[in-house]
Design brief:
The complex is a heterodimer of chains A (613) and B (310). Chain A has 613 residues and is of the alpha/beta class. Chain A is 39% helix and 12% strand. Chain A has five domains: 12-78, no CATH class; 93-175, 3-Layer(aba) Sandwich (Glutaredoxin), CATH 3.40.30.10; 211-421, Rossmann fold, CATH 3.40.50.11540; 424-510, Ubiquitin-like (UB roll) (Roll); 515-596, de novo design (two linked rop proteins) (Up-down Bundle), CATH 1.20.1440. Chain A is globular and about 65 Å long. The N and C termini of chain A lie far apart (63 Å). In chain B, 21% of the residues lie in helices and 18% in strands. Chain B has helices at residues 30-36, 88-104, 112-121, 182-187, 226-230, 239-246, 298-309; strands at 2-3, 12-17, 20-25, 60-63, 70-71, 81-84, 170-172, 198-200, 207-209, 236-238, 256-261, 270-276, 279-284. In chain B, helix 2 (88-104) packs across helix 3. The chains are: A alpha/beta (613), B alpha+beta (310). The interface between A and B is large, with 68 and 59 residues. The complex binds flavin mononucleotide (FMN), iron/sulfur cluster (3 copies) and FE2/S2 (inorganic) cluster (FES). Flavin mononucleotide is lined by residues 245-249, 251, 253, 273, 275-278, 362, 364-366, 399-401, 404, 580-582 of chain A.
């Protein structure tokens, strides 16, 4: 295919940044075979963003020339992701979280302060700020992600940083180029060092950068045992353990693994979903920052068990600290032959590649994530075929969430039946929850499945006084009320009250909360994050947001009942006919809030919410 | 029980549609079965000569065992599949897809079928409030993903924007574009392999675009017009048709279609010449034609315009 490229040439900086991630073909110097390494499209765009802060015509053209990707398609990909810009943008941008976990907890105040100092978003050419959906640091609100372009940044990972809690002074210093203190995962884990922890056992105990410390704390016992008992036995243990996915969909992990392990196709992949973007969720970030070797070991166990030679770790682009931690752990593991072509002397081949997301919640959906890994727009695929049959690069693929994978280490060392004995029914083992909002000690908590919501809140400093509602499971979840605190936190228990565990979000709101902006933010989130592929979600999320705006402003068309009917109609088509889980759950939180009367009766905006119920 | 014959000999499987059993080839889609069974199934993004993208969701049906509805255009049949088209859920989703599209797009040139389905299913796009202001030229393509101005709900957002006229052969009227992906497929691997256009942006702000939204003459476009041939809403149309419509002289009542063979080269594509008032207004090719599959090149598609305009 001959590519028709725009005449613009890249600058030397752009060219150098791109050439550094697109390897030269030793046989045919010049462009790689057309489209064959399209999976490098996002890495190449990241390289340009990291170096110069936006993707110019010349830069996009050079990427296309090197990878053999048509420019219109590459442009379609670049414009899909919020962290990429195809128009000039200040090389240092502060992404300020104004989502449900941050807005009322300093996020809106910070936006106002930055607007005061820097003008509206995009006003300045050197430094600027912009609003952002949840940045996964809700336990230390308000959160900021600093996207900083720096051509000389040493480790090839860019110069990006996270600040939480953020104040205007630190943000301005960071925008000025200063190193700001990064997040401390131990602070985010109030249980650190306590007995009885499994997933969080090493947090604050073993230095996350030190392989020896990891081993001394029990690390790599799982892989050793997995190699000793063999792949089939590992898959059996995971099946017996009744482990269910922790990414939100709660699918039985053993079923997926068995399908891929049993596939006759010689090439298979393992993918770890570390795109964590569900508003209110931060558990995977804490795991990766505080115990990265555990994820690397777990992926190795999983990869070898299902017969994959390569594993991809897709990590959200706003998690630079976690990305550094896992990349370091991978390098160390490789250096010590815990990855590579002879894992632990077993003769088994397995290695890991890290890929960075670029600001798209939808890329957490498994098939959208695979498209993104392949250098495409993050649009979910039709299922069937399921990823276990035709996943990444069309090959059988196991995709699992970070927390799901880390659970595998306990299953291998303690045994499947032992794991299954914790909890009940389909809900076995322990589970991480992300507590934030109006709660005394926010953070990640590990409890056994079946612990009640009340017991979980007790761990975090007690049931918040004047608790009004809890957003359970994330923006795709629903609100529950103080009379429901005795619900056992299991798949079955939450379903019984019409809720779900989702990704483990427990976001608390007291009765000072004005729920109108909370709901509008959730509706706006889905409108922004819809990939746009299917009509129910693309247009439905817009109409939902508009109707909600009218309701909270007391400007209903045809009265309250008419608006509620309209919302119900939109809800039903999104839930029934959308392609993927985003559209299918886009009405969930709004529906539950309206049912609970959290937003205004007769035009009131909810106020303390009580009188409207 | 009806026997559905879809041409090639394949293993037959049994599918039940609204309590009637059908024996169909195993590689049929549910929509194939519905068509042969005589159901009037709405469709927008589906075309017989393109790979299904199942994006519009207007063709959904209930399939036993599946919680969400299933797009009939893309889903292959399985032995023992139980399909329902006659339920309230199916009717509701179809109505809402047509209604949501009608609320955001200009569907006035989407054809008689769409107009009929909209009435039959009871789509009421007006209940979402008055139409909001149209976007300025180029504005929709410049929206940053993940960001939008919070609406007050007083008016409804639409994709309204001016028509793009940047070449002599065809116009792009994206106020009518329902993002069915057909033009992208036709320009790409399904026919033309030119890849001049793709979907850009995200969500409601997604658009069909060239790289950096450059005018078509600066893009890879070779003016085969295959995108026009598949566009279901009139978003893409020849300059000839556009100008006649603007002048109020578009007269489908008068239109006659004459089949001929293209004389420009040796391939011998079948051309359907659409003539109004003794003027060729469009050239198409039948999608079931074994050579063209409905696709042409610039000479066949626009040769008449060269003749008439130059
Ligand atoms: C819109 C959407 C976003 C999602 N985001 C994530 C995510 O950030 N992390 C994740 O692990 N799973 C996410 N999922 C679920 C994945 O599709 C998939 O079920 C999961 O990665 C499978 O791993 P598990 O079985 O270990 O949970 C998301 C699903 C949807 C529909
Ligand atoms: S439901 Fe929404 S996010 Fe999912 S495919 Fe459809 S438009 Fe995209
Ligand atoms: S006219 Fe042909 S080449 Fe041009 S955009 Fe349409 S399909 Fe692509
Ligand atoms: S321009 Fe036409 S063919 Fe292309 S996506 Fe829009 S409606 Fe479909
Ligand atoms: S015709 Fe089936 S989804 Fe569009």
């Amino acid at each position: 295919m001959d590519l028709a490229l725009l005449p613009d040439a890249p600058t030397d900086t752009e060219r150098a940044a791109i050439d550094a991630v697109v390897p030269a073909d030793p046989d045919t110097p010049g462009p790689l075979p057309a489209g064959e390494r399209r999976d490098l499209l996002l890495p190449a765009f990241h390289a340009v963003m990291d170096a110069v802060g936006w993707i110019s015509r010349g830069a996009l053209g050079h990427v296309c020339a090197r990878l053999g990707v048509p420019p219109a398609e590459a442009y379609g990909v670049a414009t899909f992701y919020a962290l990429f810009s195809v128009t000039p943008r200040a090389p240092r941008t502060a992404h300020v979280c104004d989502d449900v976990g941050c807005a009322a907890f300093g996020g809106e105040a910070l936006c106002a302060a930055l607007e005061d100092r820097l003008g509206p978003p995009g006003a300045r050419e050197d430094v600027t700020w912009t609003r952002s959906p949840c940045l996964g640091m809700c336990e230390r609100a308000p959160a900021v992600f600093l996207q900083r372009a720096e051509p000389e940044a040493g480790d090839g990972l860019g110069d990006h940083q996270q600040i939480a809690p953020a104040d205007v002074t630190t943000v301005l210093e960071g925008l000025g180029g200063a190193d700001v203190p990064g997040p401390d995962p131990v602070v985010s884990t109030p249980q650190a060092g306590a007995d009885g922890l499994h997933l969080l056992a090493r947090v604050g105990v073993a230095d996350p950068a030190d392989l020896d410390a990891y081993r001394a704390a029990g690390g790599y016992a799982g892989l050793r045992r997995a190699l000793a008992v063999g792949a089939a036995r590992v898959v059996d243990e995971v099946t017996t353990a009744s482990l269910t996915g922790r990414g939100g969909a709660a699918f039985p992990t053993g079923t997926k693994w068995a399908a891929v392990a049993g596939s006759p196709e010689p090439e298979k992949y393992l993918v770890c979903n570390a795109d964590e973007s569900e508003p209110g969720t931060f558990k995977d970030r804490v795991l990766m920052e505080a115990d990265p070797f555990a994820l690397v070991e777990a992926m190795t166990v999983a990869g070898i068990a299902v017969g994959a030679r390569t594993g991809y770790l897709y990590i959200r682009g706003e998690y630079p600290a976690a990305e550094r931690a896992v990349r370091h752990a991978i390098d160390e593991a490789r250096h010590h032959r815990l990855l590579g072509d002879d894992v632990m002397g077993s003769g088994r081949v397995f290695d890991l590649e890290v890929r960075r997301g670029a600001g798209a919640y939808i890329c957490g959906e498994e098939t959208a994530l695979m498209n993104s890994l392949e250098g495409r727009r993050g649009e979910p695929r039709a299922k069937p075929p399921f990823p276990t049959v035709a996943g990444l690069f069309g090959k059988p693929t196991v995709i699992n969430n970070v927390e799901t994978l880390v659970n595998v280490l306990r299953i291998i060392t303690e045994g499947g039946p032992e794991f299954a004995a914790v909890g009940s029914g389909r809900s076995t083992g322990s589970k991480l929850f992300c507590l934030a909002g109006t709660i005394a000690r926010p953070g990640v908590y590990e409890v056994d499945m079946g612990t009640t919501l009340r017991e979980l809140l007790e761990l975090a400093g007690g049931v918040p006084p004047r608790l009004r509602a809890i957003l359970l499971g994330g923006a795709a979840g629903s609100f529950v009320t103080p009379d429901q605190l005795d619900v056992p936190l299991t798949l079955e228990g939450t379903r019984e009250i019409g809720a779900s565990l989702g990704s483990g979000v427990v976001l608390c709101f007291d009765d000072d909360t004005d729920f109108a902006p909370v709901l509008r933010r959730i509706a706006g989130f889905f409108r922004d994050e819809s990939c746009g592929q299917c009509v129910p979600c693309r247009v439905g999320t817009v109409r939902q947001e508009e109707a909600l705006a009218r309701i909270v402003r007391g400007r209903e068309i045809g009265g309250r009942t008419t608006e509620l009917q309209l919302l119900t109609d939109v809800d039903r088509v999104m839930t029934d006919a959308s392609i993927c889980g985003l559209g299918q759950t886009a009405a969930s939180a709004v529906r539950s809030a309206l049912k609970l009367g959290l937003v205004g009766a007769s035009g009131a905006t909810g106020g303390n919410g009580v009188e409207s119920s | 029980m009806t026997l559905v014959d879809l041409g090639t000999i394949r293993r037959l499987v049994s599918v039940t549609v609204d309590d009637v059993e059908h024996r169909v080839p195993e590689d049929a889609t549910i929509l194939d079965v519905l068509d042969r069974a005589g159901c009037d199934t709405p469709r927008l993004c589906q075309a017989p000569n393109l790979t299904p993208v199942n994006a519009c969701r207007v063709c959904v049906v209930e399939v036993e065992g599946s919680r969400p509805l299933v797009p009939s255009c893309a889903r292959r049949v399985e032995d023992g599949m139980v399909v329902r088209t006659d339920t309230e859920r199916v009717a509701h989703s179809r109505r809402m897809v047509l209604e949501l599209l009608g609320s955001a797009n200009d569907m006035s040139q989407a054809g008689d079928d769409v107009a009929r389905w909209s009435v039959e299913y009871g789509a009421d796009p007006e209940r979402y409030g008055p139409v909001g202001p149209p976007a300025a030229a180029g504005e929709r393509g410049n929206r940053h993903p993940g960001h939008h101005a919070e609406p007050d709900g007083e008016t409804r957002a639409t994709v309204a924007q001016p028509v793009t006229v940047d070449n002599d052969l065809y116009v792009r009227d994206y106020a009518r574009c329902i993002l069915c992906y057909k033009c992208v497929e036709a320009c790409g691997t399904d026919a033309q392999n030119t890849f001049a256009i793709a979907v850009a942006g995200r969500g409601f702000d997604a658009t069909i675009s060239t790289e950096f939204a450059v005018p078509l003459p600066e893009s890879a476009c070779v003016y085969c017009g295959n995108c026009i041939g598949v566009c279901p809403t009139g978003a893409l149309k020849s300059v000839a048709e556009h100008e006649l419509r603007e002048a109020g002289e578009w007269d489908p009542e008068d239109e006659t279609v004459t089949s001929t063979i293209c004389s420009f080269c040796g391939v011998g594509c079948t051309l359907d010449l659409h003539v109004q008032h003794n003027t060729i207004v469009n050239v198409t090719s039948p999608h079931d034609h074994s050579v063209t599959h409905g696709h042409l090149c610039i000479k066949g598609r626009f040769g008449f315009q060269h003749v008439q305009n130059y």
